[in-house]
Structure formats: C-alpha cells, structure tokens
Design goal:
This protein is α/β, with parallel strands linked by helices and 260 residues long. It has nine helices and 13 strands.
C-alpha cells in the first residue's frame, strides 16, 4: 500500500496528479525503478517445498517460478509477501496482496470467498509416520490417533474426516519436528511436499503409508472484484503451457513431466 508523503504548499502547487493503474490495485513505483512500474504482490506461505520455501534468504519453489513467469508474460514486476496459510485469503480480500500462489486447493468452500484461476497442478494428500510405526497404514487407520496438519489446510480437513484428533500447526516444518519428536502419531500433508522432504533426508526417519487422497486441484487465488486479473492470469497460464515454459518449471521442481 502506498504511503502518502507530506508535501509543501509550493511543491503541491506544481505537482502533477498521476493515476497509477496497476494490477490488482497494487501498482506502485518500485525502489530504483522507472515511474509507473507495475507490481503484482504475490502472497504465499514459505514452508511448503517444493511449491514454496526459503533458501538463502530467498523465496523459491514451483509456485514462485510459475508466478514469476506469469508476471513476465503480463509485464508486471513481482513482489512476494510471506504470510501464514490461514491469513492468505483474508489478506487477499483486504487488498494486502493481489494473488495467492501457495499450493492452495480450489475448494468449493474457498470459491465462495475468492476467485480461482484454472487449475495448474493435480496432486493428492498422504499420511506420514515414523519408519517404525506399523499401526497406521493410511487414512483408514488414523481414527483416534493424534495427527498433525497445517492450520486451514485440506490435509487437516481430511484427517478430521477420518476420525483423527487433529493437532494443527502454523508451518509444515513444525509438523516434521513434532512427528520426529513423537508428539503426534502421524502427519497429514500434500503428497508432493512429503516426497520432497523424504528425498532431502527424511526417509531415514519417516515413511509414507496408504493410498493418497487424489481429488485435488491447485489454483491461484484472486479477489472476486478482479475478474480482469483472473482472465489475464488464465491467459498467461495457457500461453506458458503452450510454449513449454510450464513444463520446464514443473520438471525442475518435481523431477517428472506433468500429467496431460
């Protein structure tokens, strides 16, 4: 949000009124940039690798690269704003951010509050347990168990629907810590995120169990009063898929070609 600067009467008398027409109402002059630079503020929650995470004090991941490619296609500069997952939709509705790119499911409940772009990732949810656990074999065996999941996530909803005592936490990093410490019996989480964590060294302590819940479609969230922006992002996504850019980004972060 732009801050008003106090101007002297003399300065005010010669100032030209400039209308900044920007993406999602967040257009602003960036530091060192040309006057009128357009900025898209992207909200995310950076503990969800490979979708988004922090590396060397920089936001990286599948969603970050894809959002950057969309901004490049549309001619916008990108600014990333890190928030708690459950704070993303309120921030979007209040105008603090222009778009959500956070591995978010386009659920019917969320569609009542915000717009969603076309789905750009299909995946699923899985249960993760310590390697020595033989009692829990998937979602069908978590009833009465303490299952960790990120607050506001579909992973938490699915665990609750299967009878688990859900222990919610702010970040996925906390979930791994609690599972390894034994303060919860299992974690319900996005399958791609779980696989990435195990590939990074977690497989010595943790394992995936059972069949994943696969009814999922990830999309970017946009305010309901910004249909034009939704249309622009959808067009950019189509072009990125057509020119091969999307496939390259997908391969970079998931190691395989996307399902078509």
């Amino acid at each position: 949000m732009m801050k008003k600067k106090v101007m002297t009467l003399a300065a005010a008398s010669i100032a030209a009124v400039t209308l900044l027409a920007g993406c999602g109402g967040s257009t602003e002059q960036s530091a060192g940039g040309a006057k009128g630079d357009k900025t898209l503020i992207v909200g995310t929650e950076p503990t969800f690798p490979p979708f988004e995470f922090t590396e060397n004090d920089k936001d990286v991941g599948f969603d970050i690269d894809l959002a950057q490619a969309i901004c490049d296609k549309l001619g916008y500069k990108m600014e990333v704003k890190n928030l708690g997952f459950d704070a993303l939709i309120p921030a979007l509705k209040s105008g603090q951010i222009d778009i959500i790119a956070a591995g978010m499911d386009a659920t019917e409940e969320r569609k009542k509050q915000i717009n969603f772009t076309d789905v750009y990732y299909q995946g699923g949810y899985t249960i993760v347990v310590p390697v020595g656990n033989t009692d829990i074999t998937g979602y069908d065996s978590i009833a009465g168990k303490t299952v960790g999941a990120q607050v506001g996530s579909k992973a938490a909803d699915y665990a609750r629907e299967h009878g688990a005592n859900v222990k919610e936490f702010d970040t996925n990093t906390q979930g791994w810590m609690e599972l390894e410490a034994g303060t919860c019996d299992a974690v319900s989480i996005d399958q791609a995120v779980a696989q990435y964590y195990l590939q990074q060294g977690g497989k010595d302590k943790l394992k995936l169990v059972g069949a994943p819940i696969t009814s999922r479609g990830v999309a970017m969230g946009i305010s309901k009063d910004k249909q034009e922006l939704t249309d622009q992002v959808n067009q950019a996504l189509k072009e990125l898929k057509a020119d091969g850019t999307y496939d390259k980004i997908y391969q970079k972060w998931f190691g395989t070609a996307p399902n078509k």
